[in-house]
Amino acid sequence: MSAPATIPRAAWAPPSRARVAGLRARLRETYGVPCAPPHGDPLGELVLTVLSQSTNDRNRDVAFLRLRDRLPSWDAVRDAPVEVVEEAIRPGGISKVKSARIQAILRAIDEDNPGEGLDLGWMRDAPVARSRDFLCTLPGVGRKTAACVLLFSYGLRDVPVDTHVSRVGMRLHLLRPGAPFEELHDAMLALTPRGAELEFHVNLLRHGRRTCHAQRPACAACPLRRRCPSRATA
Fold first, then answer.
1. How far apart are CA 66 and CA 71, in angstroms?
2. Which of 30, 34, 74, 226 would bridge with 202, disulfide CB 3.0–4.6 Å?
3. Burial (Cβ within 10 Å: 0-12, 13-18, ≥19) of residue 26
4. Which residues fall within 8 angstroms of residue 64, CB to CB, at 6 or more apart?
């Protein structure tokens, strides 16, 4: 399957509610309904998302646990020699880049979060747009990372669009093929039913990892094949 051809914005029509509902139901039948209650730790989620770059979930989690074991407070992580942070998170890969970024993020939060320091608990009750804008001012933090923090920490209305979700969404024409990531995030949020943010994100992610691969997608076994506009290119 080749990548879907870019569709010009003027020629694009968003999917109907019925189409979204049908795809969501089929994904639920295939992958179930994910259960991940909000954990209330936005700073931990932020660091975890940085560690997830270019690695798998297992290595990400090992790196995170090593970091928390060796430097048990975020203040300690912020103030430690960068080499100490780098060594702690080494199992997560590209540790030199990630260690510097994590410390830069922590310092920026401390400087730009008046009266709160490294506590992001105010986001629980703040308008989502305000929290998203704050997060996106941090070094290296974009819409996907901000959405992960807001959704997984507090169950707030945002939907992360990573490479798997964007690939599946564009192949299914839920999202405009060729659209920039900013548009993809806005579009995914608009089409996702309220309350289904985590379910739809996780099941699209699972489908991208298990079936709709970037290279050699398993189209013949795909449970969404009959609903996929890209199937003709397979």
1. 8
2. 34
3. middle
4. 44, 47, 48, 51, 89, 92
Residues 6 or more apart whose CB falls under 8 angstroms from that of 38 comprise 152, 153, 154, 155
Q: Which residues contact 150 (CB under 8 A, 6 or more apart)?
A: 42, 123, 128, 131, 132, 135, 156, 157, 158
In one letter, which amino acid is 203? N
The one-digit pLDDT tens for each residue of the chain (234 residues) are 556 778 888 888 899 999 999 999 999 999 999 988 999 999 999 999 999 998 899 999 999 999 999 998 999 999 999 999 999 999 999 999 999 999 999 999 999 877 778 999 999 999 999 999 999 999 999 999 999 999 999 999 999 999 999 999 999 999 999 999 899 999 999 999 999 999 999 999 999 999 999 999 999 999 999 999 887 554
